[in-house]
Amino acid sequence: MFSKILIANRGEIAVRVIKTCRRMGIKTVVVYSEADADSLAVEMADETVFIGPPPAAQSYLVQDKIIAACKETGAEAVHPGFGFLSENASFAQRCADEGIVFIGPNPGAISAMGDKIESKKFAERAGVSCVPGHIGEIDDTAHAIRISEEIGYPVMIKASAGGGGKGIRVAHTRKDVEEGFPAVRAEAKASFGDDRIFIEKFITSPRHIEIQVLGDKHGHVVHLFERECSIQRRNQKVIEEAPSPLLDAKTRDAMGAQAVALAKAVNYDSAGTVEFVAGQDKSFYFLEMNTRLQVEHPVTELITGVDLVEQMLRSAAGEVMAFGQKDLKINGWALESRIYAEDPYRKFLPSIGRLVRYDPPVEGEHGDRKHAYTVRNDAGVREGDEISMFYDPMISKLCTWGKDRITAIDGMARALEDFHIEGLGQNIPFLAAVMDQARFRSGKIATSYIADEFPEGFHGVEPTVFQKDAMTAAAAFMHVTLARRARDAGGPLARPLTRQDWVITVGETRRAVTLSPSAHGMDIEMPGEGRSLALREVEWRPGSPVFRGVLDGVAFALEAKPAAEGFVIRQRAATARVLVLTPLSAELHERLPKRPPADTSKMIVSPMPGLVVSLDVKEGQEVKEGETVAIIEAMKMQNIIKTERDGVVKTVGPKAGDSVAADEILVEFA
Amino acid sequence: MQQILEELERRRAHARAGGGEKRTQSQHAKGKLTARERIALLMDEGSFEEFDMFVEHRSHEFGMETQRVPGDGVVTGWGTINGRVIYVFSKDFTVFGGSLSGAHAAKIVKVQEQAMKVGAPIIGLFDAGGARIQEGVESLAGYADIFLQNVMASGVIPQISVIMGPCAGGDVYSPAMTDFIFMVRDTSYMFVTGPDVVKTVTNEVVTAEELGGARVHAGKSGVAEGAFDNDLEALTQVRRLVDFLPLSNREKPPTRESFDEADRAEKSLDTLVPSNPNKPYDMKELINKVVDEADFFEISADWAKNIITGFARLDGQPIGIVANQPQVLAGVLDIDSSRKAARFVRFCDAFNIPILTFVDVPGFMPGTKQEYGGLIKHGAKLLFAYAEATVPKITVITRKAYGGAYDVMSSKHLRGDFNYAWPTAEIAVMGAKGAVEIIFRAEAKDPEALAAREAEYKARFANPFVAAGLGYIDDVIMPSETRRRVTRALKSLKGKVLENPWKKHDNIPL
């Protein structure tokens, strides 16, 4: 085994590799760019080498610098992580030429699988099922119909030069082809000046399922079952799981066997992934092979107990794989949620910046025996670190394992509750929403899941009965704790807080309650509903952003922020303003008319904090929908702000050079 | 006998009805509470005791003799906020539009005098239509009587004004002389002359909201120290503010039990200051991570945002915080930020509230706009305020402390008690680039030589150690240790005694 390796990567994957190396007694060298000088990976590594400015093209992607760093530190091997140089055959070759071991597959396997057409040919030869289709010239409509019927409906008619949704039609019947083929051809000619068309099988409601393979340098290849990565947003994976809720043992074996066959065909000798697209009918077709460790590898590790990084190191060092296919079993279920620095409430706009607060759930075993789950959080950041514009905006990969799928999902929902991040937008509420959706829980998912379930984007969800109860109980506890302390500190005329009857409002829900505090908890009677709540085991003190407790035997956590009056509370995907009022105050609240929320259709607000680079409309000016009104620079990126309606400008807020806050009004219409 | 007792209740009920059901309803329809409802929310439950409920005006002009309502448009009295005595007056818009008569003014003056005598804060809730014109000069005299009390009470007891409806003409000057003004968005406005007069005199067409709404005064003019969405929020927040303040200048601010460890370390503060000196960061993160329970009551949050002012606690002890905000105009001192901070520092000093100052200041704002506006004298206000303050003063320089602004921001030289710096501090006359361009003017045409000089200057001065070597900085501290260090420093200053020479009063450059 190696005594020292270099990690040609950054962030969580660098940390991930270091962890295994430490366990195996291997010294690590981490290379870093200017932006990563203070990173966790740099802190954890035994040695570090500076390799240049933040842009990857000037640092992490410069082969000369990586090779030089290996030589300088005497690292015997390079782990490329994922991204950057991980699937670069010339780099793998270069390492070999320099006498440095590339911890990954041989260069031949990388280049064979790196080419889309080449890899399909390999796949076909290895007996892997590929999407049926016709790539050659199509003479006319009759020919198109013949091809379509050979493939079997539905088929996709697509312009070779197509893109952006143009020049694509799905045909379910012969009639569709009769109409569609000439239409697509005309569209292709008009749009792209190229009327070449191809037809392939259209998979309705497809799913993304991939097989993890592992090989050594002695011809052994096994598969470690599948991962399903159907929950994607714009082709970016968001939630992954293993195994897949779609597959039965037979399909799993068939996919695994095909993946192994393909790996063997290219002499695959490391960890790799064979990606398939699957129909809801369990049909599956080869997409491509990724010749590297995948981002979502932890879910496979959690269900198989195999450390994939360790196996990569062992096979790179020439060891013979210590287990065979028969030794591998699926144990339980694992999920991964990718925590991204993006604002789900603002169309998932990137929201990079400083992690003012970063408090992940504790790793390890959680829950009682019936609902036991295990948490794993792969992260490369600490509180106070910056999610920078130069690299992937992923904050961490939160994984949970449970004995079955629902246990893992419930565990994930709880782990997300326990995850507290401040300082930038992040998708935790969105991930929590998915965990609570019946369709996700049923396993009937597809790559179109997010588009199907959130057609209007994400705007949070209405609190459920339990969530309203939890918000009620938490707010009651917090309010009484704070009010008591204020009285205790008060003057000679202070009377102890003896009031028990309060009114608590959660959004529009209003309930009269009777509160009886107990040690670390509270009983909340709700006479109007004829029931009561028992809050116990409270873990909260003034100033804590997260409130934990057990409500009627159910453990929960929520985020509570003090507001001008009451609290703003988020539990999973539901957010509400919660007020704890005396009966008098509640009555006075009722007397005032509800103020309608500001009519934002009449204004354009800044979607993020930033600097106004330009604001080129004047008062009285007429603007048309889609016209650019302002450019806001945030984190050195210019964001073009357009109007979504026609109108006449009434007032212009800031001017070029001003700083604006998120939601600050830029332009108001008459 | 029973009848006599019942008569009291009858009269009380009549007085409490104010301007009657219809006017009360119309008040609610406008999104406003009534004078008594507001007091009930402001004070501890059941603690309010009303004075002068049966006072009526004495006017016989213009048919006023036929219209008398007990209370005469203002509710006055005292009660408690968390058991501490507070005096209050609350204008009753339902009675004569809350307009000010001689009798009405006398009621206010009575509680003002009483508050001063016992040493208790006074809170005024404003929602009124100005002078009672039928009373003429008597009403003007009433205003002046109130103004005089405001001035006498200034610096003796905290005075807080909440504008919850119209407040125009003579009515604005009483709040103007109090310590804090809060406004309610969309339902309150304040101006000396209203839109009609403005139209006549200057031909400007402007709405009341645009002329003197909460957004204008909390964000543009700086007249108001805060704005809230409705009456209930405003009153909740006034209660929160009062909890930070002593009842008078004869007391120390009230301490309370803290749920936060006094020696809590915040590792992430070690990376708060970015390695690029021109990159901003959010000073509020530092404030929130240093103070108890991240509980910070910001004063003038929306105005002159390049400086942050507000109240917080360290291990239960209230403090005033002044901090440059590098995120806005690089934290530069200009006219508005100097005025904002100077007034805040003087309030803290008047009421024995220790001051914690966080410094990251590149200097004073250059330009004709600032100089024509009198930056010299406005900047001097802050300098003056810090210099004369005798309360405990703790200063932490996080990054830049350049030029005269270094002196101003609670420096050692202005009797700072504890002056700390982070290792990232740069205490110098100016930034390295500007400095070498002056010192080495002869080499101006040789960019390479200049760059070398800049590096040299940086190495020499872009650190806290030159100042520390001279004793201007007491210690260089780890950012993560800031809470522990400033809390300890504050405790050590409990017995601080410092007096300024006797004078009638100073002559701050107003």
Summed up, the helix count of chain A is 17
CA distance, first residue to last residue of chain B: 62 Å
How large, in whole angstroms, is the Cα Rg of chain B?
Answer: 26 Å
Helices and strands of chain B: which structural class?
alpha/beta
Oligomer: heterodimer
Flag low-confidence runs of chain B. Answer: none
- Molecular shape of chain A: globular
Low-confidence runs of chain A: none
Number of strands of chain B: 17
Task: Give the count of helical stretches of chain B.
Answer: 19
> Strand content of the residues of chain B, in percent?
15-25%
Could you characterize what this model shows?
The complex is a heterodimer of chains A (670) and B (510). With 670 residues, chain A is an alpha+beta fold. In chain A, 28% of the residues lie in helices and 33% in strands. Chain A has 17 helices and 40 strands. A nine-stranded antiparallel sheet of chain A has the order 14-13-10-11-12-15-23-21-20. In chain A, strands 25-26-27-28-29-30-31-32 form an eight-stranded antiparallel β-barrel. In chain A, strands 3-2-1-4-5 form a five-stranded parallel sheet, with helices on both faces. In chain A, β2, α2 and β3 form a beta-alpha-beta unit. In chain A, α12 runs antiparallel to α13 (428-435). The longest helix of chain A is centred in the last third of the chain and has 24 residues, at 465-488. The mean pLDDT of chain A is 92. Chain B is of the alpha/beta class and 510 residues long. Chain B has helices spanning 2-16, 21-29, 35-42, 102-118, 137-153, 173-176, 195-202, 208-212, 214-221, 231-242, 283-290, 335-350, 368-372, 375-388, 403-408, 432-439, 447-461, 465-469, 482-492, and strands at residues 49-51, 74-81, 84-91, 122-126, 159-163, 166-168, 180-184, 189-191, 226-228, 297-299, 307-314, 317-324, 355-361, 393-402, 418-421, 426-428, 475-476. In chain B, the strands form three sheets. In chain B, strands 10, 11, 12, 13, 14, 15, 16 and 17 form an eight-stranded mixed sheet that branches. Chain B has a seven-stranded mixed sheet with strand order 1-2-3-4-5-7-9, with helices on both faces. In chain B, strands 6-8 form a two-stranded parallel sheet. In chain B, β14 (393-402), α15 and β15 (418-421) form a beta-alpha-beta unit. Chain B is elongated, with a radius of gyration of 26 Å. The model of chain B has no long low-confidence stretch (mean pLDDT 94). Chain A binds chain B through residues 37-38, 354-356, 358, 382-385, 423, 485-495, 499, 541-543, 562, 564-565, 582, 584-585, 588-589, 591-593, 595, 659, and chain B through 28-29, 31-33, 37, 40-41, 44-45, 47, 80-85, 186, 228-233, 236-237, 243, 247, 254-257, 259-260, 267-272, 275, 281-282, 285, 292-295, 327-328.
